[in-house]
Structures are given as C-alpha cells and as structure tokens.
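Q: Predict the bound structure with magnesium ion.
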Amino acid sequence: MSDMYNTRMLSPSDEDIAFAADLICKGEVVGMPTETVYGLAADATNPCAVKKIFEAKGRPSDNPLIVHISEKDMLSDIACEIPALALKCAQMFWPGPLTMVLPKKAVIPSVTSGGLDTVGVRLPSDETARHLISKSGKPLAAPSANLSGSPSPTNAKYVLDDMNGRIPAIIDGGECGVGVESTVISFQDDAIRLLRPGYISVEMLHEITENIIIDKGVLEQLALNAKVSSPGMKYKHYSPKAEIYIIKSSFEDFREYVLSDYKQGDAVMIFDGEEIDGDIPIVYYGNTSERQAQRIFSALRECDEIGARRVFARCPETSGVGLAVYNRLLRAAAFRVIEI
Ligand code: AMP
Ligand code: MG
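A: Predicted complex:
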C-alpha cells in the first residue's frame, strides 16, 4: 500500500486548499496542519473515507477519531445531549486544543467513533485547518498523521516521512505551535473527566469547575483488554525505535547515573541549558513546559535520527501543560521510570 499515491506537498494558499477540499469530497485523506499536531483528515461522515485513515495509519479499529469542525454551530449537527458544562467549555476554549466527548448523532458512522456511541469533537484554532473544513463543507475526522505507535508529527516533513505513498496530499503549514495533541474531556453529572491531558490544562479547566476527575489512564498503564474511557490510552504510543527511560531525579543525580552506566548507542534527552561532559549524544527538549510540549515529539524523532538505542530522559514538571508532556513521555517510555 505504501506506493499507492504520489504524495503531493501543498501550501496553505486558497488554490491549494480548494484542491485539498476537492480530494476530501472525493473520499480521500489529506495531511493537514493544526495548532496541536498534524492530522490525517477525511470526511467524518463517509465510512469509506474514514476507513482509509485507519489503513494509512495502521490504527486499531477500536481507537476512535476526533471530529473537527470549523464553527461552533456545527457541534449540534454531530453531537447531542450537550450539557451546560460543555457549552461553557466551548465558549471559553474554542477555537483551541480541547476535544469534548459527547453522545454522537447518526450522521457520524460507527467506524469514525471506533464503535462507540460517543464522538470526540474539536474546533481547532489553526486557520488552515478551519479553512479546509469550511471549504470541504464536512466535519473532518483527523487523528494524528503518524503511523500508529510512532511520535505524532509536528511538521509536514515528519508527516511525509510516515505517509509518503499512503495519502495523496499534505498541506505544509509549518511547525505546530502547541506540539501535543488536544486535551480530551468527557462530562459526568456536574464533573469534567480528563481523558487525555493537553495544552488546556487541569488548572485552566478549573475556571469552569473545581469538579475535575483525572482518568486512571492519564498516569497509569492500562491492560490491552481493559475497558477504558479513552481507548487511545491503552495502546503503545509515541515510541521511537530507541528504548526510553525517564529518570526522576535532580540533574546532578541524572548525570551521575547516566555516565556511570554509559554504553555505545546511549543518548540523553535533557532540558535546554543543561550540559553533560563526555561524548554522549544530546537531544534538547526545552526548559519550560510550553516549549517541552512543542519539542517532545520532534525530540523523540531526533533520537531515531541519531540512531540512539537507549535514551535517558529528564523527567518534566507535571503541572499545567507539563502533565501532557509527562503523559506522552511515559507512553514513549513504555512506563519505564527510574526514581533516584
Ligand atoms: P488521536 O486521533 O491520535 O489524537 O487520538 C484520539 C484519541 O482521542 C483517541 O485515541 C481516544 O483516546 C480519544 N477519543 C476520541 N474519541 C473518543 C470518544 N468518543 N470517547 C473517548 N475517547 C475518545
Ligand atoms: Mg495519535
């Protein structure tokens, strides 16, 4: 399947977006930028088109797709039983990196929702994404544009690395500003349940309600057969080829630990401004939570580019958007955490 298409790189010009929208209306899949990560977009209401997304990614069919809309009014076309809390969230955080899980309407086929009777809906702030949605005239299902299991792509080149020959076109909108996927929430009585942390942090959600439940899947490893509220959280995720180890310690202890057990093929993922002597390859991933969110997935891809076999990563802060960084790194590391 990998040479089915001659993948074309498009710009965010009106002409190229019209071309991409035409592909989508014909049931094809297009790589699109969003403010979080790049997505693989197709008409969310067309089961054949949505199947092509799953094929291009190699994604398990029970892992639901997020549906993207270009205006708040489109929400009631695809979701029902919208609680007051959800309307408040939309008012406060849309357009932006927040996905709300709500009961779905019949127009969203079961293949899009991974067999669930709910749908995750998001109104992105990225202009190109919104332009493509409105030009297509359809809600767009769009998971991250990586091969299933790989780090999410934060620029068009990384989309091409994974999707060359698998999709007809990619719109190059430059580097993504946020860098981690959207915050995913659902609603339970008068509480918000956090299913996946993202740029919209628990602290920001507290402006809506103090009543926030952090789902078990955010920080714990779930069994593959577990019944979970956010199916994506049980799969191997975001992994480079290297084995990642998160080291929870001070920088001094980190340095000592890494240097005492150094082998050929090792590398470190550390914060900007930190230094390690010796010739151990270094990948930097920012020194604020916002910057770490922007860098985490490209840093993981860079570990592969330098041919690392084992990577020791500094443990990020876990408040604010840091919780999203830690959540992604935990999965990239298959939950290998060493506390010193
Ligand atoms: P991705 O498309 O790769 O960003 O992954 C989307 C993730 O959002 C899924 O893996 C789920 O964890 C979550 N999600 C999407 N739709 C739903 C839904 N209807 N119910 C629960 N979680 C959802
Ligand atoms: Mg993904």
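A: Residues 143-144, 152 surround magnesium ion (ligand 2) (CB under 6 Å).
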